[in-house]
Amino acid sequence: MLLLPFPYINPVPLHIWHFQVHWYGIAYAVSIIWACIYLKRLLRSYPSTIEPYVVEALVIPLIIGIVVGGRLGYILFYASGYFLQHPWEVFMTWQGGMSFHGGLIGVIVAIIWYARRNHLSALALTDVIAMGTPIGLFLGRIANFINGEHYGRHTDVSWAMIFPHGGPLPRHPSQLYEAIGEGLIIWVLLYLVWRFKPQYRMRHGYIGGLFLLAYGYIRSAAELFRQPDGWVFDGTPFAMTLGQTLCIPMILAGLYLLSKKPQLVKN
User: With CB atoms 3.0 to 4.6 Å apart as the test, which of 76, 135, 208, 244 could cross-link to 126 if both were Cys?
Assistant: First the structure.
């Protein structure tokens, strides 16, 4: 059977004094800088009710929300038993262990806090942040692939790979599927709506709802190829992976925001 070789890339590309710089850290840093530049240009070219300067002001609250929410989400959703036995490792984020769904909750909390503090619409802020989120998802999945983690299920397709930590059987490179789906496809979808459908751009919550719905469906589909992190209702006709289960609230929230038909806001 024809297999694609797994391209070994050093998971720790940089050493600065006694500190190791991992691909995750690089992905986070590049994502934040790239998203910040992209969103400011987007808001100048195709304005919303949010001014471009708000993007920079939101960076620190969003970083805190991503890191704290992502870490707590990983602990609660995927590894609560392990961290009960090893509580001192809770703060060792450089060893990996971040949850997108937890990070999403942290980002929502940061947006609500900033919106109330500055008398802005939380839904309008959510729309803007949703536009930049696919950048982080794309680079994060590429980092997953480089690290050889979150690999796919066993398969015999010609583009299968044998991952260093995935045993001897060939597997789907599901990280790349997710990079394309959660990153590129959602980015193109949101950009087209933002640019060519100003009536939706000015409807607070619409873009955010579209992101939630698109991510929920694409991640649920990707879970069919990804090695499950856990099961819910295992052994029953209603069995779902933990990732699919966590996407259900996102899909419902997305459908609600898209069907809510809020009052149009003039620029």
Answer: 208
